Amino acid sequence: MINEATIRKIVDYMLLNACSINSSGLYSGKAGIALTLFEVARYLQDEYIEEQAFDLLQESLTSKTENISFEHGLSGIGYVLLYLIENKFIEADFDELFTDQYNKIIEEVDKSEGNSVFLFQALRMNYFWTSVKSIYPKDKRIDEIIRHIFEANELYFSVQFFDFNDINYTYNKNAVLKRFETYLKTVYECDYTDYSHVILDDYAKLYRNNRIMSSYNTAYYMEKLDTFEKYKDVINENKLFSCLDSVESYILTEHIDSSKPARNYNSLFSLTINKENELEKILLKHIPPGAFVAGYGQGIGQLLTHAIKNINLIIMASINLYIIDMSHAANTSGVDRYIGTLIGGLRNFLEIKTHWIHLRNDNTLLFPKEETTRHYIKCTIPLPQQYHTIISERFWLRKYNEQVYRLTKHLFDRKKNCIIHLHTLNLIDLAVYIREQTGCKIITHLHCIPWKDLYNSDKERFNKLYKHTYLNNGQKSSPNPETYVTNNCELQSYTAPDALLCVTDSAVDFLKNCIRHHTKNIQVIPNGIDDFNHSKRKQKTKSDIFYCLYVGVVNESKGIEYVLNALKIVQQQKYKVMLTIAGTCSSVFQKEVRSDYPDLNIDVRGRISFDELKELYVKSDIGIIASLQEQASYVAIEMAMFGLPIVTTAVDGLDEIFTDEENALKVHTKFSSVLGLSVDVDMMAKQIKRLIDDHELKNRLSHNVRKLYQKKFNLEQMMHRTVQVYKELVSLNKQMER
């Protein structure tokens, strides 16, 4: 968050410049600087800054300017005066201080009646007229002026949007769309209800016909005005595709504007936070040439005003989030990846205070540890050596949970708006115990469907449940929900939380059709990751070795044996292939794979860093996923992000994520009462050979799977939807809108 030292540096610069300016207006004059200084003085409780602000306000009020514009003239000064009176920065009478200026504004507006250019340029003046209505509620002229200004702008958009269809259109489309964004923002913030629905229809038609670019701000304000959800598709696509835009080239005011609807305060505050020695360079980079740097219009005045307002908003509306999970030191799981991604994404939401309670199975960890970083507090607590023995003993599990809470209680003391985001079902009893002590909310995140992991530990039970679930053909009723439960805590994980987050629709189907007893608040939020792909894939010649990549822990349900057998078939047909295996595996496996497949070119890397893995994603020709049970696989999403052509089994979440022949090649699974569930190895070999032989297919899949990542699995979407769940749980939406 922007700190006091940075605020005072900016104030010093503004005060030095305030001595030399002649303009009295809001955007580049004394009124704008006065507005900023009043906000700063109240925040810092600084009498000297307040005195300077008052002097500048007095000077602006005595100005003899003939300019009545909002940006540089009298209406902007009047707006500042009204704002300061309404928000009790000063005690004053508007009539006493501003009657002559008000009459001057009215006189000039009357002279300009019917002047479409004046009315078009006066759009922001409606902020002044909307504010002044509280002083003169019976003056009907004000409503007429507001209406005429909006209608002049609507006429402009009507003409421009019609001309957009002309292939010879030469005007700057971006300028028109930016103006339209400003129009929507002004309509919404001025609470104007008689706006033209025809203009919104015209915009929506152009967008649906791919004639204009996406804008998050436009989507945000259209959504506020779209009471009948007439433009829902346009709004959602605008939000989706604008998330992909870089904000690096934004000027300062664009950073401010984008931070309001998206609530992405870090995008704004990162300009000033923790970069003291680079502050001048960073700010000047985002202020356009020729702008008044100290001013409110395009300078640091507006940045400081907006930042201080939102510091107060964040303090009032903060959410205390507690991420609770369990992990094993020997393996990096998909849940571990998710939590790392979530915590990284939460840096952009300064209203959320993140605490991570991490229960760790680690032979090198004896004592609980607490560390505080810039963005979160992490409390790591060792699991008992014999933790598995207390899972089924509720009495002793509760005793352990009491100890965990004793060690973490200080994180909850005197905190409001507390949410536990639980990522390990075995810890639901801990979450419930904490809720009993604190009244917090609980979210259970269903990263996997537990019974499907029985494939690795109890294949007989897995086969029985698989047959009941997928092969009964409606002839038999589903088993009792208890049949699917794998431990004493699982059912409570579905019934006790205030919200359930699933990563796929197949998980929702499991809850509704198999468990049937669960909280009603279920939402599907696909996993997302930040975009690390900054490398182009290289074209290969036919003589090159074809590099295949398997990523993930090596166990039965991940299907590595089927991958090896499929590649064996491919190699026997004279194709030159190599398989790289990146993931946790035992030394026994490494020995067996070399002895069982001596003719295969195999590189077993084991567990590697993500930087090493990124290199493999770029260098490999295809990725192979042979899982027999999978939800929103991070491996699948990473491969998609790097545009790696994929051969995948058509199971669970993988079948949802990919479309066969469009962005991946799918392989069927088979089930028999004797062998159980298995992968069609011949089909897998066939799909691999297709990608070796058909460069056009391989390139098409690479292009399409990259687009799939950008559209559905980017980090911005995941974070936006997850944070929205947090806000809904603590009923913060209305407060945040204010």
Automatic annotation (TrEMBL):
EC number: 2.4.-.-
Pfam families: Glyco_transf_4, Glycos_transf_1, LANC_like
Domain Glycosyltransferase subfamily 4-like N-terminal: 333-530
The Glycosyl transferase family domain, residue ranges: 535-707
A GO term, aspect molecular function: glycosyltransferase activity
Enzyme class, spelled out: transferase
SUPFAM superfamilies for this protein: LanC-like, UDP-Glycosyltransferase/glycogen phosphorylase
Keyword terms: Glycosyltransferase, Transferase
Record carries keyword Mitochondrion: no
Database matches in InterPro entries: Glyco_trans_1, Glyco_trans_4-like_N, LANC-like
Family annotation (PANTHER family): GLYCOSYLTRANSFERASE
Name of the featured protein: Glycosyltransferase, group 1 family protein
Organism: Tannerella forsythia (strain ATCC 43037 / JCM 10827 / CCUG 21028 A / KCTC 5666 / FDC 338)
